[in-house]
């Protein structure tokens, strides 16, 4: 029987909460053409000439606020997830990696190769497909496989926005934090509109018809916005919430281009104007807590909500190494290997 291995991939994080380390991380991240998809000369001018001169000085102090004793939260939780999987699936080799920064995909693949893995599952830790996350991670992984001259049998996990093993632990994590008079806001990572429009091969659906993300069609089968809506609808159903009890938004914007709407900041302002004083925010696109949840939401958005007159804000933790989620992820992995074996 072929020896199985899993490569977990998350986005990435600086090695230290310093200006220098943040600059190195942002340089690798933002120069990726799948993240900022403009012509290379303009991308380099924007990133090297403007962003890297200003942004690291602003972001490093934010990382310092959330840094854990063991290191970057994203790396710590990714490591914990991996170790939990290793302990429950001891017949499979596991490595976690970061698309940008360390541990690198290159080094993780070398370790898996060295342990004799013959069947490799590539598992980007992104429930919702996007060019800037899933696609970039897969492209980079295949490049590194060529560099180390390794040709295992490859399996791709793919997107899993509606998989029971993901949405049920997510709903359970929300339910325990949700009061009867609390409004629930689903805050997803933002994405430029140009990225989602490119997915629509028909050129007749995305941003062309009302509520395009709510309609399931071949045109948006790989649309990030549609995937986010699908997760939201299923979780809302599991929680039994009526339409007045929940909202959806997008956070973490960079640059002046048009992004998916509404922004989390604007949605929070709108909710307060409507009389919402108790708010819970969940960020389903993030499987492990990091800067976007621990600082942007739990510090930045919290302060803004309170300044507007809000009374109570709960930022629900990401699934992290929640036991129900780790068990669900383990089931997804074994199911994927089994299905591939049948095919």
Give your account of this protein's structure.
The protein is α/β, with parallel strands linked by helices. It has 2 domains: 4-160 and 323-342, Rossmann fold, CATH 3.40.50; 164-315, Rossmann fold (3-Layer(aba) Sandwich). It has 11 helices and 8 strands. It has helices spanning 19-30, 40-66, 73-88, 105-114, 131-147, 164-175, 193-199, 224-239, 264-273, 291-307, 323-342; strands at 4-12, 92-100, 119-124, 153-156, 183-189, 246-251, 278-282, 312-315. It has a 4-stranded parallel β-sheet, sandwiched between helices. A 4-stranded parallel β-sheet has the order 6-5-7-8, with helices on both faces. Helix 5 links the parallel strand 3 and strand 4 (153-156). Helix 1 packs across helix 2 and helix 6 (164-175) packs across helix 8 (224-239). The protein is globular and about 60 Å long. The two termini are 16 Å apart. The relative contact order is 0.14.
- Gyration radius, to the nearest Å? 20 Å
Structural class: alpha/beta
Largest sheet: 4 strands, parallel
DSSP helical segment count: 11
Strand content: 5-15%
**Helicity level:** 40-55%
Any idea what the CATH architecture of the largest domain is?
Answer: 3-Layer(aba) Sandwich
Q: Tell me how many strands there are.
A: 8
In short:
This protein is α/β, with parallel strands linked by helices and 343 residues long. It has helices at 19-30, 40-66, 73-88, 105-114, 131-147, 164-175, 193-199, 224-239, 264-273, 291-307, 323-342, and strands at 4-12, 92-100, 119-124, 153-156, 183-189, 246-251, 278-282, 312-315.
């Amino acid at each position: 029987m072929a020896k199985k291995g899993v490569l977990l991939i998350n986005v990435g994080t600086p090695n230290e909460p310093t200006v220098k380390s943040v600059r190195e991380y942002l340089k690798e991240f933002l120069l990726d053409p799948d993240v900022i998809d403009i012509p290379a000369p303009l991308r380099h001018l924007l990133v090297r000439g403007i962003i890297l001169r200003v942004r690291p000085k602003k972001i490093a102090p934010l990382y310092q606020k959330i840094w854990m004793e063991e290191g970057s939260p994203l790396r710590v939780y990714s490591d914990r997830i991996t170790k939990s999987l290793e302990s429950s699936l001891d017949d499979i080799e596991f490595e976690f990696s970061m698309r940008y920064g360390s541990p690198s995909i290159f080094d993780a693949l070398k370790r898996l190769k060295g342990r004799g893995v013959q069947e490799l599952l590539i598992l980007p830790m992104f429930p919702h497909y996007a060019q800037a996350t899933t696609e970039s991670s897969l492209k980079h992984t295949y490049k590194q496989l060529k560099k180390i001259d390794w040709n295992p049998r490859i399996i791709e996990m793919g997107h899993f926005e509606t998989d029971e093993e993901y949405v049920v632990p997510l709903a359970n994590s929300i339910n325990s934090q949700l009061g009867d008079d609390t409004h629930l806001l689903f805050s997803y990572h933002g994405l430029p509109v140009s990225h989602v429009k490119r997915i629509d091969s028909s050129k007749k659906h995305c941003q062309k018809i009302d509520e395009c993300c709510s309609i399931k069609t071949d045109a948006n089968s790989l649309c990030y916005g549609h995937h986010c809506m699908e997760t939201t609808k299923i979780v809302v159903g599991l929680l039994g919430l009526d339409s007045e009890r929940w909202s959806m938004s997008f956070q973490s914007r960079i640059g002046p281009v048009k992004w998916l709407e509404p922004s989390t900041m604007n949605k929070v302002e709108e909710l307060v104007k409507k009389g919402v004083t108790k708010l819970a925010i969940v960020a389903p696109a993030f499987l492990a807590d990091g800067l976007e949840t621990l600082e942007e939401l739990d510090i930045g958005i919290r302060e803004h909500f309170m300044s507007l007159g809000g009374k109570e804000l709960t930022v629900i933790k990401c699934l992290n190494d929640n036991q129900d989620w780790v068990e669900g992820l383990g089931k997804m992995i074994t199911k994927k290997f089994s299905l591939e074996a049948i095919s």
